[in-house]
Amino acid sequence: MGLIEQLEEVLLTVDADLATVNNNAELQQKKANYLGKKGVLANVMANMRDLSIEEKKELGMRSNKVKAGLEAKFEAKRIELEDAIINAKLANETIDVTLPGVSFNNGGIHPLNQTIMELEDLYIGMGYSVAEGPEIETDENCFEKLNLPKGHPARDMQDTFYINPELLLRSQTSPVQVRTMLAEEGKPIKIICPGKVYRRDADDATHSHQFMQCEGLVLGKDITMADLKGALLEMARKMFDKDRNIRLRPSFFPFTEPSVEVDVSCGLCGGKGCSTCKGTGWIEVLGAGMVNDNVLRMSGYDPKEIQGYAFGIGVERITMLKHKIDDIRNFYTNDVRFLDQFKEVK
Ligand code: PHE
């Protein structure tokens, strides 16, 4: 066989040879066999010494073509192998969207925090801002500046955890009012203050030594009890339902005058009277009143210029009413069977 025929022969055999190649390493090996320094092509060309100039020219041209042909075949095979790998991967990683999903055991927002978030939402909607204060307070902020001097009998209403004679765990969120008034120096105020409070109560179904309040304070020119009633009626209708009513009953708090106890109409009987409302048609939810002149003066406000109201919502109380929970301890014992019921369904 002449050299040219040998060359052409290479192009014919390479196909069958390539068909046996399964991976890139084998492909590289084969490529070296054909196109490498000691490959088939180089072997043929090594024998061209004995040819005439014309024949060398002819052979040169042919060998270039064969070389190009081989390279094209190797490149095609390389792409074929690469595609096969990608296709296998795709087939492997196909997701069966009909398979059942893995369920994650996500936590939820605590029911008391849900109530606070709702309160914040509705009061922010009425132009209030949210203020916070420390849980360790001074006797001065928690009592003195709220018109409760040492020895005042009304201090007994809140049995307090003292750290020393001057420091205590706050028994109400009202000291945040005091802090805000001192900071605002006579300017109008419109805030709510949610947070934890502490009292030396024995824990039972309706008492907890730690619970939450959401205080409100609005100070400005010509603020009246009608404004207070409006703010609380809006709260009752948003927190419970749009058919609720409220009523104010005279009461006493040292920091407000006049003071009121606020009832919401019973949602179970619609006000007719049932066991939940003890036959009265009303349920007590919070204390409120017009800020006492003494309180205003002690924190730098002139009662002739500026007046306003304050209210203190019991967060547990309205959460219990809203969700018909009969034991306050449920909020603090972290039983997931209880907490799971308040997970938002997403
Ligand atoms: N701080 C009072 C309490 O804990 C509630 C209250 C707040 C009453 C503001 C009137 C005005 O009992």
Characterise this structure:
Helix 1 packs parallel to helix 4 (53-92). A seven-stranded mixed beta sheet has the order 1-4-5-9-8-7-6. A two-stranded antiparallel sheet has the order 2-3. It is an alpha+beta fold. It contains eleven helices and nine strands. Phenylalanine (PHE) binds at residues 172, 174, 215, 253, 256, 287-289, 310-312.
Name the descriptors.
single chain, 346 residues, alpha+beta, 7-stranded mixed β-sheet, two-stranded antiparallel sheet, 11 helices, 9 strands, binds phenylalanine
Describe the biggest sheet? Answer: 7 strands, mixed
From the spread of the alpha carbons, the general shape counts as rod-shaped
Which hetero compounds are present in the coordinates? Answer: phenylalanine
Spell out the helices and strands N to C.
HHHHHEEHEHEEHEEEHEHH
Range of helix content:
40-55%
Secondary structure: number of strands: 9
- Compute the average pLDDT: 93
pLDDT < 50 stretches = none
Number of helices: 11
In spatial order, strands of the major sheet run 1-4-5-9-8-7-6
Separation of the first and last Cα atoms: 80 Å
β-strand percent reads 15-25%
Summing up helix and strand content along with how strands pair, one would put the structural category as alpha+beta
Radius of gyration: 43 Å
